[in-house]
Request: fold
Amino acid sequence: MAIPLITYDDYSYSSKNIDELLKFQDPIGAFETRIDPKDICIKVPKKINENKLLLNVPVGVKDIFLTSDMPTRYGIKLIPQSTQNIDSIIVSRLKSAGAIIVGKTVTTECAFGASGKTRNPHDLSRTPGGSSSGSAAAVSARQVPLAVGSQTSGSIIRPAGYCGVWAIKPSYGCIPRTGMLELSKSFDHPGFFASNVEFIARAIDSTSGCDSKDPASRGIEQTNILSNLHAKRSAPRLIFLKPYFWHALDKVTRASFEKIRNNFCTDEIFLDESYENLEKIHNTIVFFESSRNLKKFFKNKSFEVSDFLMDRIALGLAISEDDYKFATAEIKLMNKKIIELFEGYDGIITPGTLGDAPKGLKYTGSRVPMIPASTFGLPVINWPIVKSENKLPVGLQIIGLPRFDSELVITAKWLESNYTSL
Reply:
């Protein structure tokens, strides 16, 4: 089946209109670095795959992924600043698909510390969420149609929910992490923010598949979602997961979720009490692993880091090896029960945030709703369809089985196509 070049969603890219795009200011502070418009022609990839899935598409990249022609600062002030002459795997594969990397987007410090300068395009007084703040905001503000992010706990789905954009955190290992700052080997996931489902399909098809340097990607094959994205299919079998924080959502938000549940879901479930400690167990693993990966920044005068980041590193270094091993064992015991939730269903729909974005830029919001998908490596998509009583975006997660990323994206496309206004 022939795959058409991108000519939808008001995007039809050429060097000329990307040049115009880059001349706009960045009032929301989404970018840490942007290429000079006069350099557009030399940024066009020289070696492009035959499928040209992302030909001339401008892409923002979270500033924790190595880029050969731009500095990578990890959201902190590095002294000295330098550019490594290497691309992360995800960037290399994007370029091979024809994408043009137009800049590095703002991240919280090392995707673990203090928040950055980025504002929420829907309300400049509110956080865009973190840690992939700039990537979510850049897509929301239509500065780019596609941006790279990462999620260890909630750093893709949370900002996607607050900024009202499509996004995917794929299955664990779907996209190799080679050349990405390592926080937690157990839970780090690269992923994407996009203006529509088709860009998600093109991005995953372009970047998925095994890389020998990332053990998590072993045995993972490259997806071919786009060839089946528009094919006719029967309605997916979906179930609604009602979270414990349900009554904390405002009435307008709850009503929106109830309509979606009634239209698309055949049943409703709850997580039982055995998952009450999941956040604590998840945090034990994240803090243990992240602190040991980031301790080079701890009390090192070569770097300017916040007290907040230093405190989090210190907290993680204080976790014992025994507590870490106990937490990893608990996750393995819980994993089977999580998979059993999908029995007879293609996916789960559940709130993705605790409401709309909090006011202020310091606090990037709760990651509680996203912890199950991150902990168990489940693929999850944010569907930007729900709004709060403040008329601001609220996250909605569509969660699939691990390594069923293609099926999840196709389900999201079906929902997008069959949705009628709330």
Remarks:
- The chain is about 30% helix and 15% strand.
